[in-house]
Design brief:
Low-confidence stretches: 1-36
Bound molecules: zinc ion
Number of helices: 10
Strand content: 5-15%
Strand order of the largest sheet: 5-6-1-7-15-2-16
Oligomer: single chain
Order of helices and strands: HEHEHHEEHEHEHHEEEEEEEEEEHH
């Protein structure tokens, strides 16, 4: 394509983004940072001593797509027990952009934004090698950074993963040992996942993992199918609460509930897509033709990679607050969709009315939960919302180990955790 065409392509793209309601401008949001955070008053000022366990243990739980606010949909006595006796992000945990499952889960365990940990979407093509990353890709070259299980094992401690994106990737000190690392299988009942984790506490004390992950794919699976306001979500949330109750009871029976640090999070929220906010790239042909082969993904992340020879120069920078640049894997043209919008190549009259996520993390609907419970978390404390890249440092701080460098704020943990005695 001639240079002149390139220029016109670029301006047309901008026009296109404006015309079709896609915003590449920054939306206002307040992000909490270490300087502005002030935890609410708590009578406790030091971590509680361990009674039965010999060393600190963290169980990191993810309930996929647990939108902030779901905890009020129905009685959730077990989740609320953790909230009441623990520390909560009062207005939710802020996911990283794009608010998708793999980028966020991997940010939680590395403390890195997707541009730095390399998992820039759930699905993408590497423009250099032509290889495609999918949710099943386990080759270590995709997965940058140092996830918590690797950090933990590097320090001579034991880590156990009952599912987590990236946990089966053998990298550095982590070789996904069969005793402590479960290959993903969504059919494994949630009860079995919890029973396995509880079983670790029956091992001799030097075999109890210091760090464990547990992952539940609900209520995300229901959210995609029926949207966030359907009774099926309420049911799924009640079920997650029941599973948390099972974990609590099992830990109590073993006399370790008050010794274990439980961090319960989600990866992102969910928004309804029932408002008919549909855009079809084909309808834009009079202004600009975007061949299907250029489009890496449609929604909620519109990622377009034109072929070699077409070099779009976007005049307006993508908002820096999204930290979504400086990685060659990221497509050169990203359409930041307004909340609830869906984009497709053409109108096939297959409109769905359900739920989606992946949008700008400034939207409140994309927020999820953060609850910390255990000896390092003050009881009944509320902290302002923060981004999930802070969690990595929080875990290494609880375990008293030196973490790898990351995008979290080194001192952040001091605002959320109780100091050691
Ligand atoms: Zn998810």
């Amino acid at each position: 394509m001639a240079r002149k065409s390139v220029v016109s392509f670029t301006s047309l793209i901008e026009l296109l983004l404006i015309l079709i309601g896609i915003s590449i401008a920054a939306a206002p949001i307040v992000f909490a940072n270490a300087n502005t955070l002030k935890a609410s008053y708590s009578v406790e000022n030091v971590a509680r001593p361990l009674v039965k366990l010999k060393r600190p243990v963290v169980i990191l739980i993810s309930s996929d797509g647990f939108r902030f606010g779901y905890q009020f949909k129905t009685p959730t006595p077990n989740i609320h027990r953790l909230i009441r006796n623990g520390t909560e992000a009062e207005t939710g945990l802020i996911p990283v952009f794009p608010t998708l499952t793999f980028p966020n889960h991997y940010s939680i365990v590395t403390g890195l934004y997707p541009a730095y940990h390399g998992i820039i979407a759930n699905w993408f093509t590497d423009p250099n090698s032509g290889e495609t990353f999918t949710k099943r890709s386990q080759e270590p070259h995709w997965w940058l950074g140092e996830p918590l299980w690797q950090t933990v094992v590097k320090h001579g401690l034991i880590a156990a993963t009952y599912f987590w994106p990236g946990s089966e990737v053998k990298k550095g000190s982590w070789n996904c040992p069969p005793k402590y690392c479960q290959p993903f299988n969504k059919k494994v009942p949630f009860e079995e996942r919890v029973d396995t984790v509880l079983g670790y506490f029956d091992l001799p004390s030097d075999e109890i993992p210091s760090f464990m992950t547990v992952y539940f794919q609900d209520p995300d699976s229901q959210g995609h199918r029926v949207g966030p306001d359907h009774p099926e979500i309420t049911e799924a949330v009640a079920n997650i609460d029941r599973i948390i109750g099972k974990l609590i009871t099992g830990l109590e029976k073993r006399g370790v509930f008050d010794d274990v640090n439980i961090i319960m999070v989600g990866d992102h929220g969910m928004v309804g897509t029932c408002d008919g906010k549909f855009l079809y790239l084909e309808d834009l042909a009079p202004w600009i033709e975007i061949p299907e082969s250029w489009v890496q993904s449609y929604y909620p992340l519109l990622a377009i990679r034109p072929p070699a020879g077409v070099s779009p120069a976007i005049v307006e920078d993508f908002p820096a607050r999204l930290h979504y640049s400086a990685n060659y894997r990221i497509s050169p043209i990203i359409g930041l969709l307004d909340e609830g919008f869906m984009v497709e190549q053409r109108n096939l009259s297959q409109r769905t009315c359900a739920g989606a996520h992946g949008y700008d993390n400034a939207y409140f609907s994309m927020r999820t939960i953060f609850i910390g419970h255990g000896p390092k978390f003050a009881k009944g404390r509320k902290v302002p919302s923060f981004e999930n890249v802070q969690i990595y440092n929080m875990v290494t701080s609880i375990l008293n180990i030196q973490g790898a460098s990351n995008n979290g704020t080194a001192s952040f943990s001091n605002f959320v955790l109780l100091p050691n005695r």
